[in-house]
What we know:
Strand content: under 5%
Helix content: over 70%
Amino acid sequence: MDIAIIESKINEIFAELEKEVMEVLMDESLDKKHTNLRMKPLTSTKQILTNALESIKMVDALSKEEA
Length: 67
């Protein structure tokens, strides 16, 4: 399994998420409540992807130890 490719793709997604976050933060038409509501899915998505990448790395390391 090529972890570098997976990590690269996830980093691309992170970059897109950061753009979306900046758009939300710069939108002055949103009050604090609506800003927070729009940020929650973006934050959750980043955390899910971070956890997935860590899990993939752990599985890869374990499979290399067994080999």
